[in-house]
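Severity: low
Component: inverse-folding endpoint
Summary: output formatting inconsistent between runs
Steps to reproduce: submit the following structure tokens with default settings.
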């Protein structure tokens, strides 16, 4: 692994560049840079700065490690009315650009604060003690009408608030890594050839597309997840390491029998599942098209990618991992369902029974399209 990422636990402050207010124009699109200073809440502002700093470090490391002679990658949060993330080539500035709508990390933070306000999620965390985070937040449930919101009661003690912030950070880091993966896998540049526009958007209004395009996009999304999961394991390793010295990290991610890796991987997979359910609900409500598999298939595919990457570093014990994963997924589904975050019609038994074959079909698709990016890829395909 060629880069190190900071954990959110160290509390490092970034020298942020969030005061940028420039706009960039490419392919007729103009989106303004989100100004982190607009955020009134100090804790959330700090989380945004950590994410921005980490994204800038990842961009630098990827270009140094994989891209000598390649165009640089810039990162920014943007102001836009859509819940979306993009990787594109910015011809005006001759660089790759990863852009994430500021609503994405913000909603993710609120989502996990709400989930962790329910004591069934990570039930082993003591719910007692003084409430550290106690506020009502309007949260967008009806995405067809952003004005229609529900008030979510956020009530978490210190350890639960810490877990919520750290898990949101993991999911937001995954989103950033996924967008960077679209660049280094060559998807962004290859899009110029396939569809005439060097841009990958997570959601898009799209008319019916040819099956070949649909399959290729699905394969690329899975591939970006695979690369992102490989890098995320670095982050998970940092978290496991921190459990040895940080009491709060030990309480959330530590394990009495020494199964820290298994336990932490299970939390990450279940959290990504909850996050994908929310994102999928958003996409459907906005009547947008996406190229990702069903949240259950997507999170299980990522589970396999994470396990493969983790096993290159440490031996993972399958049994404690499976037990922990079942427990975490089950509590995540119960609470997400009660909060109305996913449609149970999407999670039928018949559907669950077909998941293995869907996973297998996804693997074949990734293999089929692995040479689809010609010389655009920043690394050799093994
Ligand atoms: Zn993507």
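Observed output (run 2 of 3):
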């Amino acid at each position: 692994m060629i880069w190190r990422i900071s954990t959110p636990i160290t509390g490092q402050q970034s020298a942020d560049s969030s005061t940028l207010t420039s706009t960039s124009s490419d392919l007729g699109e103009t989106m303004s840079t989100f100004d982190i200073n607009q955020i009134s809440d100090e804790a959330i502002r700090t989380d945004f700065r950590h994410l921005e700093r980490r994204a800038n470090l990842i961009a630098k490391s990827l270009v140094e490690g994989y891209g000598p002679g390649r165009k640089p990658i810039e990162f920014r949060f943007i102001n836009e009315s859509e819940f979306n993330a993009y990787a594109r080539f910015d011809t005006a500035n001759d660089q790759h650009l990863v852009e994430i709508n500021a609503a994405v990390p913000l909603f993710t933070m609120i989502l996990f604060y709400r989930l962790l306000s329910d004591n069934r999620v990570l039930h082993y965390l003591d719910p007692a003690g003084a409430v550290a985070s106690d506020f009502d937040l309007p949260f967008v449930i009806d995405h067809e009408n952003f004005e229609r919101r529900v008030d979510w009661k956020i009530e978490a003690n210190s350890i639960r608030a810490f877990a919520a912030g750290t898990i949101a950070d993991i999911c937001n880091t995954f989103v950033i890594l996924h967008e960077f993966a679209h660049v280094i896998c060559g998807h962004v540049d290859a899009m110029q050839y396939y569809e005439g526009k060097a841009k990958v958007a997570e959601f898009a209004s799209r008319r019916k597309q040819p099956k070949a395009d649909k399959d290729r996009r699905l394969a690329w999304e899975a591939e970006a997840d695979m690369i992102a999961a490989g890098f995320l394991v670095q982050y998970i390793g940092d978290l496991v390491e921190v459990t040895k010295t940080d009491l709060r990290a030990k309480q959330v991610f530590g394990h009495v029998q020494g199964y820290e890796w298994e336990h932490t991987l299970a939390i990450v997979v279940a959290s990504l599942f909850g996050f994908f359910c929310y994102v999928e609900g958003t996409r459907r409500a906005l009547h947008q098209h996406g190229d990702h598999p069903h949240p259950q298939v997507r999170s299980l595919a990522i589970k396999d990618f994470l396990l493969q990457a983790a096993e290159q570093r440490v031996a993972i014990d399958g049994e404690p991992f499976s037990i922990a994963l079942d427990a975490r997924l089950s509590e995540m589904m119960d609470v997400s369902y009660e909060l109305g975050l996913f449609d149970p019609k999407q999670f039928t038994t018949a559907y669950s029974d077909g998941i293995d074959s869907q996973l297998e079909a996804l693997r074949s698709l990734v293999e089929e399209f692995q040479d689809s990016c010609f010389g655009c890829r920043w690394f050799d395909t093994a």
